[in-house]
């Protein structure tokens, strides 16, 4: 059976990550303490067959997106992530690209905030990671809908209650923030492609982009209409990660409020639904 340094490294890193550390149930008897291939595939959003082919050396040229997803799922350090890119025959992302590496410390924060909806976004508003309660609250997105700007301008897929005025203000803030990101990372091809696609698919985005405004999208109070729990009015805070350009979006309820009770109920009902669906 063929093997490669890439496959050997993937198996080594998979073996050292426990399912509990990755937010997965341990589930019955296991031959090893680490992740199963199917679990790594689930966390990285790729097929289990592709993980097998990578480990066995039958697939040796994964895309940068797949390598990035594997690095996040395996909770690699910055140096390990760079090594994984090189093993895949790719150059690690340079300083002119949007940072997408999630440090082990950020992973641990999400693990410890299991009772709080938290998601991690890069500076271009791509969702990189979300804990189960955040997914239960906001819904599970895939593909282009993982980008918050795309959702707000193209698919309009959101449980957040909005008036025409609040939607307009949010769109203005998102475009201004994305422009600031584009100015900081002029070499990021994925970001340039995102902006070009947004301009093609949304006249509103193109109009705002051409206005040249530069600003940051920060915090707010939002009402989320959940299909099972009903409306929850929560504080939404966007926190920067020190030493990176990642943003953590955190939703909290006022202690003792009806919204806090609904959020606690969602932690039971919503995450059970996700387990069944998965």
UniProtKB/TrEMBL annotation:
Every HTH cro/C1-type domain range: 30-81
CDD domains: HTH_XRE
Domain of life: Bacteria
Chain segments annotated as transmembrane: none
Gene3D superfamilies reported for this sequence: 3.30.450.180, lambda repressor-like DNA-binding domains
Protein name, UniProt field: Helix-turn-helix transcriptional regulator
Organism whose genome encodes this protein: Amycolatopsis melonis
